[in-house]
Amino acid sequence: MPLISSFEILSDAQKGHYAVGAFNIENMEMAQAVIKAGEETNSPLIVQTTPSTLKYAPPSLFYAIVKSIAENSKIPVALHLDHGDSFKRCCETIRAGYTSVMIDGSKLPFDENVILTQKVVEVASNLSIPVEAELGTIGGKEDSLVTSDKDALYTNPAQAKEFVDRTRVNSLAVAIGTAHGFYKGVPKLDFERLEEIVKIVDIPIVLHGGSGIPDEDVQKSIRLGISKVNYATELRWHFTQACRKVLEDSDIFDPKKYGTAGREAVKEFVKQRIIVCGSAGKA
Questions:
Q1: Which domains does the chain have, with CATH numbers?
Q2: Helical H runs in the chain?
Q3: What does each C-alpha distance from 208 to 2, 20, 77, 142, 270 come to in angstroms?
Q4: For 70, phi and psi rounded to 5 degrees?
Q5: CA 113 from centre of chain
Q6: Catalytic residue among 82, 85, 104, 217
Q7: Which residues pair with 133 in a beta bridge?
Q8: 82 given a catalytic annotation
């Protein structure tokens, strides 16, 4: 089916009290793997790319890949810009055909984040493109941005309501103790903070840094109101590990051989995450 808006996917998740996995891809094989996993579990999906991925290949190319695969699938798929780093980047991906964008102004002072987000929402809403924003800072590394754990700022619930009211964003990523990349230990999520946010903010809430969070903590977050969970690092890890294993045989030099292995590894991982998020059977 054609690519659809993430608004529809996340609205259903919010009403149904489950979450939809949002999976970052880096190439054709990962796009195939993610959507195949959705087909095998009958789950809606959000496929994402980050700005660094769009420096590797342009958004028009990723759009063409994901659009082609989605059109030959029966599950709902949205194509989303993850951690959009500028107004220009958001406009670039919208022009390319993306059906959802995130503007990440979380490193800016509150009012500057509001102004930047308002600017993106104004353009995107005229084209019926939903916008995700972020308030508070997720720890770890995302593309070239690094936030040390001690400097990570958790989302203030009252500010979250003000931010949503002023910007009219469609979904909000919150900082409750997660981090990008692999965790050095077991993350401690602030569930009380999440509960407070969900009580006063009526749009879908997003959990970034899903890679490595224990399944029971992901599921508790979903029970408390999370509607979207982002996964990136583990997809790259599974793809690379599978390729490395194939390439131990020095006689193999056909990219299709190790690409197939990487694709299968990512598909199986994504299926597991879909089950944890509770979106299996919801397509």
A1: 6-277 (3.20.20.70)
A2: 6-16, 28-41, 51-56, 59-71, 87-96, 110-125, 157-167, 191-200, 215-224, 233-246, 255-277
A3: 26, 12, 19, 10, 16
A4: -65, -35
A5: 20
A6: 82
A7: 103, 172
A8: yes
Q: Which residue has the tokens 């997003």?
A: 206
Extract the tokens encoding 226.
Answer: 């999370």
pLDDT, tens digit only, all 283 positions of the chain: 999 999 999 999 999 999 999 999 999 999 999 999 999 999 999 999 999 999 999 999 999 999 999 999 999 999 999 999 999 999 999 999 999 999 999 999 999 999 999 999 999 999 999 999 999 876 544 454 444 444 457 999 999 999 999 999 999 999 998 765 544 555 789 999 999 999 999 999 999 987 779 999 999 999 999 999 999 999 999 999 999 999 999 999 999 999 999 999 999 999 999 999 999 999 9
CA distance 171 to 91: 18
Residue 176 CB partners (closer than 8 Å, separation 6+)? 136, 154, 155, 189, 190, 191, 193, 194, 207, 221
pTM of the predicted structure, to 2 decimals:
0.92
In sign, the C-alpha dihedral spanning 255, 257, 263, 265 is: negative
Using DSSP's 3-state secondary structure scheme, residue 47 falls into strand
Query: Rounded to an integer, what distance in angstroms lies between the CA atom of residue 14 and that of residue 228?
Result: 9
